[in-house]
Design a protein that fits this description.
The chain is α/β, with parallel strands linked by helices. It is 36% helix and 17% strand. It starts with 8 loop residues before the first strand and ends with a helix. Bound molecules: geranylgeranyl diphosphate, SN-glycerol-1-phosphate and magnesium ion (MG). Geranylgeranyl diphosphate binds next to strand 4, helix 3 and helix 4. One of its GO terms (molecular function) is heptaprenylglyceryl phosphate synthase activity.
């Protein structure tokens, strides 16, 4: 079974951002979250990635890197694996297969046994990731569901990621993706900032991803979102 099948909650650390004053990666690992993903769109370098992976990898929690370009991939025994995005609704094929081809061409240390893909559906047109990938975010619930179905059944993706980075998403669209998936795991990320928003999104998605909150508000706020996710699962086991 894949690691993520058991995850209710992920903290995503952006190596280009700092933690709240006085907080450490050990505190982040102790929030009760199930895993740490390390990735961001803007300002990513191998050096920043390595610094965060080294710091997070010391704690007893799965750590996966999520590179936004081939140059930010780091190899180390400190992390558990690599989650490589493929953007279903990208306007530029670079973000579907192009960057992947280049990465494979230039990197001779790829460990396929620890490398997996995430099929992103990018939904917030104002997020850097939308600009970066030239995503068409103007999608209704039917289209989101169809992208999710294509990801699972045509492209064989194990993870579908509805990405509202920076804003809380439309639950109807998240639910549409959830309903259509058979075995793939649904990640939801974007705008989760408290117990209630976490619980609501976790009622639809298998796993919620909390990003900016850890940088802006800190670990106490993150702990509330962990509770929200766990309560949603306890109410309606999936
Ligand atoms: C082939 C390799 C190794 C890399 C390419 C991987 C791809 C397709 C990247 C596309 C962009 C993407 C989906 C990045 C994942 C990380 C992510 C979505 C971060 C959140 O981005 P924002 O919140 O918009 O950005 P900032 O917080 O940096 O402003
Ligand atoms: O930063 P937020 O809005 O929590 O989004 C989380 C994650 O989906 C970003 O890739
Ligand atoms: Mg962000």
């Amino acid at each position: 079974m894949s690691d993520w099948a058991d995850w209710d909650h992920i903290v995503k650390i952006d190596p280009d951002k700092t933690l709240v004053d006085g907080e450490t990666f050990e505190d982040v690992a102790a929030t009760g979250t199930d895993a740490i993903e390390v990735g961001g769109t803007t300002g990513m370098t191998e050096e920043k990635m390595k610094r965060v992976v080294d710091a997070c990898g010391k704690h007893d929690i799965p750590v996966y890197i999520e590179p936004s370009n081939p140059a930010s991939v780091v190899h180390s025994d400190r992390h558990d694996g690599y989650l490589i995005p493929v953007v279903m609704n990208a306007g530029d094929v670079t973000w579907i297969t192009g960057a992947h081809k280049e990465w494979i061409r230039i990197d001779d240390e790829i460990d396929w046994s620890r490398t997996f893909t995430e099929a992103y559906i990018v939904m917030n047109p104002d997020a850097s990731v939308a600009t970066y990938t030239q995503a068409n975010c103007d999608l209704d619930a039917d289209e989101v569901a169809a992208y999710a179905e294509a990801a699972e059944h045509l492209l064989g993706q194990d993870i579908v990621y509805v990405e509202y980075s920076g804003m809380l998403g439309d639950t109807e669209k998240v639910a549409a993706a959830a309903d259509i998936l058979d075995d793939a795991t649904l990640f939801y990320g974007g705008g989760i900032h408290d117990y209630e928003s976490a619980r609501t999104m976790a009622q639809h998605a298998d796993t919620i991803v909390v990003g900016d909150l850890v940088h802006d508000e800190g670990v106490d706020a993150v702990r509330e979102t962990v509770k929200g996710a766990q309560d949603a699962k306890a109410e309606a086991p999936q």
